[in-house]
Write a structure and sequence with these properties.
single chain, about 160 residues, alpha+beta, ten-stranded mixed sheet, 5 helices, globular
Length: about 160
């Protein structure tokens, strides 16, 4: 297995959880000038049955997402809409919004899963990527107790 610095070398996103996406985006834009924003729902209307898991079972959740770039890092702001998911869990446990995850682009989900399992850290939510990342998949790992936030990973599609 490769060293962690090799596996987690490509930080691509910082994720925030909010209770109201419109209010959060308005505040980010008015106070510190962030934007423009790209807003999407997950799963999208044209892919309502895309693969989703929540802990050990199938996931049936929805969320409203905002993406924007700030330098080299993508910021993601998530408002959970319905269903059981780690986004709603976060809001309940933390009694409100905050830093939810750091996301890394990875080569191989199996390698990451084996690495985290060797540390006693389990995958808690995953799904099929859609939109500009269609064909990729993402997964969250329960690092919240160790770091104060989750780690999300998404595989990089290698072009042949």
């Amino acid at each position: 297995m490769r060293e962690p610095k090799e596996i987690f070398k490509n930080l691509i996103q910082i994720g925030l959880i909010v209770e109201n996406l419109d209010t959060a985006l308005n505040n980010l834009e008015e106070i510190i000038g962030m934007g423009p924003f790209r807003i999407a729902e997950y799963p999208p209307a044209d892919e309502p049955n895309c693969e989703r898991t929540y802990y050990e079972g199938d996931g049936d959740y929805k969320g409203k997402f905002c993406f924007f770039h700030y330098g080299n890092i993508e910021f993601e702001v998530i408002q959970p809409i319905e269903g059981e998911n780690i986004w709603t869990d976060y809001l309940k446990e933390n009694k409100g919004p905050g830093l939810h995850h750091l996301k890394f682009l990875i080569d191989d989900h199996q390698e990451v899963n084996e690495f985290f399992e060797s540390k006693g850290i389990h995958r808690i939510q995953s799904g099929a990527s859609v939109g500009i990342n269609k064909g990729k998949s993402w997964a969250y790992y329960d690092t919240k107790e160790k770091f104060g936030f989750y780690i999300e990973v998404m595989n990089d599609l290698k072009k042949v």
